[in-house]
């Protein structure tokens, strides 16, 4: 799966909406991909700011 497809799933991942299989797949990708991991961290940071 391409980074773009993983990035499309990051909001659902953060919100806990993915099935376990999908969640594990995203987590594996985040361990390997610095770019997607950074985007995920940025999304988490923005969510915390908006609370």
Structural summary, described in words:
It is built from 3 helices and no strands. Helix 1 packs parallel to helix 3 (34-49) and helix 2 packs across helix 3 (34-49). It is an all-alpha fold and 51 residues long. It is globular. It has one domain (3-49). The chain has helices spanning 3-15, 20-32, 34-49.
What's the layout of helices and strands?
Layout: H1 3-15, H2 20-32, H3 34-49
Give the gist of this structure.
By secondary structure, the protein is mainly α.
Number of domains: 1
Query: Which percent range fits the helix content?
Result: over 70%
Task: Summarize the main sheet.
Answer: none
Distance between the termini: 32 Å
Low-confidence stretches: none
Q: Can you count the beta strands?
A: 0
Structural class: mainly alpha
- Please tell me the overall pLDDT: 96
Number of helices: 3
Radius of gyration: 11 Å
Strand content: under 5%
Strand and helix order: HHH
> What is the overall shape?
globular
Supply the key terms.
51 residues, mainly alpha
